[in-house]
Specification:
The complex is a heterotetramer of chains A (152), B (318), C (542) and D (120). Chain A has 4 helices and 5 strands. Chain A is 29% helix and 16% strand. In chain A, the strands form 2 sheets. In chain A, strands 2-3-5 form a 3-stranded antiparallel β-sheet, with no helix packed on it. Chain A starts with a helix and ends in a 5-residue tail after the last helix. The longest helix of chain A has 24 residues. Chain A is of the alpha+beta class and 152 residues long. Chain C has 542 residues and is α+β, with helices and mostly antiparallel strands. Chain C has 2 domains: 129 residues, NADH:ubiquinone oxidoreductase Nqo5 subunit (Beta Polymerase, domain 2), CATH 3.30.460; 319 residues, Cytochrome-c3 Hydrogenase, chain B (Orthogonal Bundle). In chain C, strands 1-2-5-4-3 form a 5-stranded mixed β-sheet. Chain C has a 3-stranded antiparallel β-sheet with strand order 8-9-10. In chain C, strands 13-14-15 form a 3-stranded antiparallel β-sheet. In chain C, helix 10 packs antiparallel against helix 20. In chain C, 55% of the residues are buried. Chain D is flat, with a radius of gyration of 25 Å. Helices cover 59% and strands 0% of the residues of chain D. With 120 residues, chain D is mainly α. Chain D has 2 domains: 32 residues; 55 residues. The chains are: A alpha+beta (152), B mainly alpha (318), C alpha+beta (542), D mainly alpha (120). At the B-D interface, helix 1, helix 3, helix 6, helix 11 and helix 13 of B face helix 1, helix 2 and helix 3 of D.
């Protein structure tokens, strides 16, 4: 007897499962057709780290204190500085190797002047490892070139 | 001369149909699975992504054919060919319309079974020739599975033969002019569809290729168009099984308003859809459960069903 | 405490005890500590085994003047964590007695000790490399190991001879078998070994005679990394171990350091931690469910589970900014406060998820094929579970209600109203049931924790601004991760980085029980059983 | 029906073979070729394969093959019977079928009882 009931319940369970899948068949698909449709990133989305552009000066806020270099667990930040005429340190070079960076945001939290932030950019492919070493000062240098009048 | 022309014409039509149909079926499978799984499936190549599979087929044409180092080269070469060759023959007797059948042989049903029974030889050959342990397991499983499900397949179709009194498929269709046999023989229909699923290695009976256990089973070592041929023949067997199911149980080309071939194709594709629907719902059986399912459930049930049919026919006659 | 002391005379009765220590459980996580001689260790272990203590962890520590093996024994029903230490002053050939015949779970721990420290466990049946490749000539966790040139250290040379001998012996044994028997490699590059696990199956037709798991493909030596980095710098590593349920691993590490510092996080942070951990646990179980069904050949539930999981990941991304390898917890609090809109999402998600669970039950649990594939497959008896130190849903599927959230409650779990689901089946089906029931319980906890969340700062008052210095001492802290008992044994020496940080990961013990569950099953069951153990390879390989 | 009709069967089978051969050979002209030692190696999850796959192998299903042979032959016997079913008067045909299937079922029951269908 259990033989027959087993067959029946088995068959019934298969049908019940099929009803569920049929129900889902008429639902709206949940997938996004990336790259044709791009979802906006959440405000806290952690893209690659980058410098904050100060609203007042239009420059970065880095004071070359090297706290971020010390805290970085994956040793991906290279910072070079020089002592200027005003006895203050000036940033000469700031590079981050994204092949090493683990986006832990410890450097951002440790920064005393809030000079670093996560960019919202997530499409950062590169063809070689050397392209993944990002020079943070590059946009600022370019800006300087364009904005400063050429000396006579 | 006329006969020769007819042969050539039918060959061209059948080959064209097999190729295009399998591409359409792959597209349909992608769409059905996508919709069931809350996805969208192919969208952009062609209308609703219809040309996606054509593009994939073209890509497959450009893929290199690899002979694995340790394989048995002759068998490895022959295996996909042998699994494809019987496909065309099975189309000979399928009655797409009232008179739309290439050769209405009086052993039609047997011919279809004979041809589709040949397919697993190719699969087993592929499994053996690859000299790959996964493939060998897959090949072995396919033999066990095919021989086990052949019997319920035959037994369940015997009921229909008994009622229609002919092996000729067009006769069987004609016998269903008023009532399709599915209403008279629901149990036989279920057994038939189950065994047909197993014969064409579809989930939940796809143990010869069982990708989560055996990577890709018998076609692990196959690449490019050789793999494509296995694919085409698998989908064509699914379609042939649906056609036979349509002819045996669903009243074939009978239906109101539309012409016969349209009804037939609609029914056949509906069965194909059901087959896909089953595939995307159920998990896979284990190899021993699969085989014992055939022997312990399907065969006793179909034997029982034959006796019931015989009894019922006898009673009706009295 | 006095109660336990009276009860525990049997532990050391008649044995040579070098020193005994009564710990304050609340301070460092141990009830008792004994330093005993090498000869009495096996006798002691047998006593623990007969009283249903399981071997929680075995950590080897390399002190300047001796090697130390720290065995932790614990019970399921009533927490009583005993730390047993055995010392060996021989710095070149430290020999220790093996426990692998008393506790089968010790087998892998001892191999790991040999692998990392070159400690030799006498009479071990199969003392070869576990996580490093067989051909490695280094013992990287020794304090005198310097980079790649480990072979230069003279002490190690003698060991390598021994090792070559062992390796040859074992590989010769296997080679002889390959000639006539059917061996098949499942993994590392296989659709259903969930990452880089290699199972070498010895087959008889389709039947599995023996299974040899080969692990270590994604070994990065986090434990060594911890010794190099300071306490704060090590936090991002936690998410890289169990990347599926990263929150609980974060919780474990941060909780450990907070315990060692004697510091409490702010109340609001506690609630944020708990609900995010529970959401992450649901995500982990959903990922398991989907891939498990995929292993069994049903692809569709995989997508449904991922749909739900995606909702959770969205919420966690809103909260933490990351989707997988969270680095969200900080000493004394969390990194960010709850953003706006998260509450609404959570409120919408919980009923939706409950509705989905009903669908899963129809689609999966009631299905005859699923039941056939999972019932009475991969049976792990209670005694085997004890012997291997299995924890988490696998243990609860043996009918034992051992869950750290209840057994030794941490954070705000005592305030939460939830149950520990147990099922007596001992098989893969019971493991499925446990995990599905846990999803429901986690939903309850997340709901409560979010509703009860008080206002306030997200970081405690005493939260360190820079990387803290942990006072010298030994600490153990355990949390319930999605896969089971995740514990950390910290030996701190008062400096800025740990002297030794041993991680007791749940999948490690769970996977070591695989071969005993598999023998006699079919090839198709291998994936069903392996899937049911829910392993995450980076967590095992560390 | 002339024998002419069966020529179709032959022609279709042969053309099927030829077509498959031609089909699998087209990539030889179209596809690129590369050399590599690992390319032609046997796939075994990224590990070197341990010995050949062609070793003595315990097929637990050979008994199924035996029963299959018995059953298949007997099903073939059933074909003409069902084709002419109920032409004879009275219950003779029904009796025949019942007896025949009864014997088949007995064979099945015997095999079942013997435990052939449960793998050991």
């Amino acid at each position: 007897m259990s033989y027959i009931t087993n067959i029946f319940t088995g068959f019934w369970s298969v049908l019940a499962g099929m009803v569920v899948t049929l129900k889902y068949m008429f639902r709206k698909p949940v997938t996004e057709v990336y790259p044709r449709v791009k979802k906006p990133m959440f405000p806290r989305f952690k893209g690659p780290t980058s410098f904050v552009v100060d609203e007042k000066t239009g420059d970065h806020r880095c004071i070359s204190c090297e706290l971020c270099v010390k805290i970085c667990p994956s040793l991906c930040i290279t910072l070079e500085k020089e002592r200027g005429e005003d006895k203050k340190f000036h940033l000469k070079e700031y590079k981050v190797d994204y092949t090493l960076c683990s986006l832990c945001s410890l450097c951002i939290e440790v920064c005393p002047t809030d000079a670093l932030t996560h960019a919202k950019d997530y499409e950062i492919p590169a063809l070689s490892q050397s392209e993944m070493i990002n020079d943070f000062l590059k946009p600022f240098r370019e800006k300087q070139k364009t904005s400063q009048p050429v000396a006579p | 001369m006329n006969e020769l022309f007819r042969i050539i014409l039918s060959l061209v039509i059948v080959i064209g149909f097999v190729l295009i149909n399998s591409l359409v079926l792959v597209w349909l499978e992608r769409k059905v699975s996508a919709r069931i799984q809350l996805r969208r499936g192919p969208l952009y190549v062609g209308w609703f992504g219809l040309l996606q599979t054509f593009a994939d087929a073209l890509k497959m044409l450009g893929k290199e054919l690899i002979f694995p180092k340790n394989c048995d080269k002759v068998l490895y070469f022959l295996a996909p060919i042998l699994s494809f060759a019987p496909v065309l023959g099975a189309f000979l007797v399928i009655p797409f319309g009232q008179h739309l059948v290439i050769q209405d042989l009086n052993i039609g049903l047997l011919l279809v079974f004979a041809f589709s029974g040949l397919s697993f030889i190719g699969i087993f050959m592929a499994g053996w020739a690859s000299n790959n342990k996964y493939s060998l397991l897959g090949g072995m499983r396919s033999v066990a599975q095919n021989i086990s499900y052949e019997i319920p397949l035959l037994l369940s179709s015997l009921n229909i033969v008994m009622m229609a009194k002919s092996f000729r498929l067009s006769d069987i269709v004609r016998a269903q002019a008023h009532v399709p046999f599915i209403l008279l023989q629901p149990l036989a229909f279920i057994i038939f569809i189950t065994s047909a699923l197993a014969e064409s290695n579809r989930t939940p009976f796809d143990i010869p290729e069982a990708e989560s256990e055996l990577v890709a089973g018998f076609h692990t070592e196959y690449s490019g168009l050789r793999f494509g041929i296995f694919f085409i023949s698998e989908y064509t067997y699914v379609f042939i099984s649906s056609c036979v199911a349509t002819a045996l149980f669903l009243g074939g080309s009978h239906g109101p308003f539309l012409s016969g071939w349209a009804w037939f194709l609609m029914k056949a594709y509906f069965v194909v859809f059901v087959v896909m629907w089953v595939r995307w719902t159920l998990p896979r059986l284990r190899s021993d459960q699969l085989i014992t399912f055939a022997w312990k459930v399907l065969i006793p049930l179909s034997l029982f069903n034959i006796i019931c049919t015989a009894l019922a026919l006898q009673l009706l006659k009295q | 405490m006095t109660q336990t002391q009276n009860d525990t005379h049997w532990i050391t009765e008649g044995l040579t005890v070098e020193s005994a220590l009564e710990h304050v459980y609340a301070k460092n996580g141990f009830h008792q500590e004994f330093v005993i001689s090498k000869d009495s260790l096996r006798e002691l272990a047998q006593r623990f085994r007969s009283r249903e203590y399981f071997l929680e962890c075995l950590s080897v520590v390399d002190y300047p003047d001796h090697f130390e093996c720290c065995y932790q024994f614990n019970r399921w029903d009533k927490i009583h964590r005993v730390l047993v230490k055995v010392r060996n002053p021989d710095k070149t050939h430290p020999h220790f007695p093996t426990l692998s015949d008393i506790y089968e779970g010790a087998n892998w721990y001892e191999r790991e000790g040999y692998d990392f420290f070159g400690v030799i466990f006498d009479n071990h049946p199969h003392l070869t490399r576990l996580l490093l490749p067989e051909t490695a000539k280094i013992h990287p966790m020794r304090k005198d190991f310097k980079g790649d040139s480990g072979t230069d250290v003279e002490d190690v040379l003698a060991l390598i001879e021994y090792e070559d001998h062992q390796y040859e012996k074992v590989s010769q044994e296997l080679k002889n078998k390959y000639q006539k028997d059917y061996f098949i490699n499942m993994g590392p590059q296989h659709p259903s070994t969930h990452g880089v696990l290699r199972l070498l199956l010895h087959l008889d037709g389709e039947r599995v005679l023996e299974t040899y798991p080969v692990i270590g493909y994604s070994h990065r030596d986090h434990e060594r990394m911890a010794e190099y980095k300071n306490y704060l710098q090590f936090t991002p590593n936690m998410g890289r171990m169990d990347y599926v349920g990263a929150m609980s691993f974060n919780f474990g590490y941060i909780g450990l350091i907070e315990k060692a510092l004697g510091m409490a996080p702010s109340p609001r942070a506690e609630y944020i931690r708990v609900f995010s951990t529970e959401l992450n646990r649901i995500a982990s179980h959903l990922l398991w469910l989907g891939t498990y069904l995929l292993d069994l050949g049903a692809m569709t539930p995989f997508f449904y589970c991922f749909d739900d999981r995606e909702n959770i990941l969205d919420m966690l991304e809103m909260l933490t900014g990351e989707r997988l390898t969270y680095n969200f917890f900080r000493f004394g609090g969390v990194a960010y406060d709850v953003p706006e809109g998260l509450g609404d999402q959570l409120k919408a998600f919980i009923p939706k998820m409950r509705g989905r669970l009903k669908d899963y039950k129809i689609l999966i649990e009631k299905n005859i094929i699923f039941m056939k594939r999972t019932k009475e497959i991969g049976v792990l008896t209670k005694d085997q579970a004890l012997s291997y130190g299995v924890t988490g849903p696998m243990l609860r599927a043996c009918g034992i209600a051992y869950d750290i959230r209840k057994a030794e409650p941490y954070s705000i779990y005592p305030e939460m109203n939830f149950e520990i689901p147990t099922f007596p089946g001992c098989d893969t089906f019971a493991r499925y049931q446990v995990r599905l029931a846990e999803i429901e319980q986690s939903l309850r906890i997340a709901e409560q924790a979010f509703a009860k969340m008080p206002e306030g700062p997200i970081k405690g008052e005493k939260a360190p601004k820079v990387s803290p210095k942990v006072p010298a001492g030994e600490f153990y802290f355990a949390v319930e991760s999605a896969r089971g008992h995740y514990g950390e044994y910290l030996v701190a020496n008062g400096s800025a980085n740990p002297y030794r940080l041993k991680q007791r990961t749940p999948s490690y013990a769970n996977l070591s029980s695989l071969s005993s569950m598999l023998s006699g099953h079919l090839v198709a069951d291998v994936v069903a059983v392996l899937g049911s153990t829910d392993v995450v390879m980076p967590e095992i390989d560390r | 029906m002339s024998s002419n009709n069966y020529i179709y069967v032959l022609v279709f089978f042969v053309v099927g073979l030829l077509f498959a051969v031609a089909f699998t050979c087209t990539p030889l002209i179209l596809s690129p070729r590369s050399r590599g030692k690992k390319k032609t190696s046997t796939y075994e999850s990224g590990e070197d394969t341990l010995g050949s796959a062609w070793v003595q192998f315990d097929v637990s299903y050979y008994l199924f093959a035996l029963i299959f042979l018995a059953f298949d032959v007997e099903v073939i016997f059933l074909f003409p019977v069902v084709l002419t079913y109920s032409i004879a008067p009275l219950l003779i045909d029904l009796l025949k079928i019942v007896i025949f299937i009864g014997i088949l079922a007995l064979a099945l029951a015997y095999a079942w009882r013997k435990g052939i269908f449960s793998w050991k």
